[in-house]
Predict the structure of NarK/NasA family nitrate transporter.
Amino acid sequence: MVESKSFWKSGHKPTLFGAFMYFDISFMIWGMLGPLAVIIAMDYPMTPLEKANLVALPILGGSILRLVLGFMSDYIGPKVTAQIGMLFTLVPLLLGWLWVDSLSQLYVVALLLGVAGASFAAALPLAGQWYPKEHQGLAMGIAGAGNSGTVLATLFANRLATHFGSWEVVFGLAIIPIVIVFILFSIFAKNSPNRPEPKKLSQYGTLLKQKDAWVFCAFYCVTFGGFVGLCNYLTIFFNTQYGLSAVHAADITTFCVIAGSFFRPVGGFLADKIGGTRMLTFLYSGACIMLLGVSFLPPLPVVIVMLFLGMMCLGAGNGSVFQLVPQRFGNEIGLMTGIVGAAGGLGGYALPLILGQLYSSYQSYTPGFVILSLIAAASMCLVLFMQSRWRVSWLSRSGKGIADSTSLTS
């Protein structure tokens, strides 16, 4: 209880929850096309690969724009960056509601929705800069749990589209919550007085010369990329493989998404306790086993449980990665959040394309999920390799690093 109080007293609660709200509603908007794709396909017939491309484009846009918002967060501050991001999010919502009249135009809207996904690069530095290193995992985990906004998308998008008889209306309705959050965020969120000095654009290149930066990118490419990619694709998977309706497929996707969303802060919290590398070893192993199980395409109840547990591992892994990042790159957290977040977005972009392309080629999802399982296994091996090197360098200088290394060698 004492430690819990010290966490809440060590930072700024209104900003923490402001960052969560901004990230949450942005994630909802970013993930709308995932569940809606099944309904949209009724108006614009698509091949499996075209469906995969549609739900992957917002992730690609988010990956690119995270670098932009990451630099802006560092230079002009995460609060103003977040406000700009919310205002620009209105553009694809208005276009999706009033402008789209063809699949090519819908692809444009899908790409522009990436600005909502780029919210990560502002929300996490805004929250994390208020908290000391010993509470970074939990603080970043709580703010990052805003990826639970995907739950709102999968739960309500298809229901609203069915109720109003139009998927375009869903884009218009999404304007209401983003405006409300913009007002509340503007009132309550504040930049940390301990915010690091702005970095130059050239320092992106300096960071990318460091091998550890690429390792964190690889870690997050798998955890976050796996999570967001599955969030956007599972409705299509359940509809195609198990013949579920658009609403029912999205409901089951919601159940799986909940695991990944709400276990992100748990992953950060446990990483604070036992060390980020140890947590990632367990989580990648769990994700590998669950995804391999899904590749056998078992009965629906079984595959739901496996995907729930697999998404739980990936979501907790997101929190664990960002327990480690501030320890290694504390003075460049704004830049690193953008870089690592962009890598995660690229992973999320690739996942639907892998599943869609292999399904088109083999008329089965088995090869796709086998490949995803092997990627998780390779990530686990990378963690084991890197922790032995980090243990004698920067990780040994962190209290959590010492706990991590001793637990691994005992």
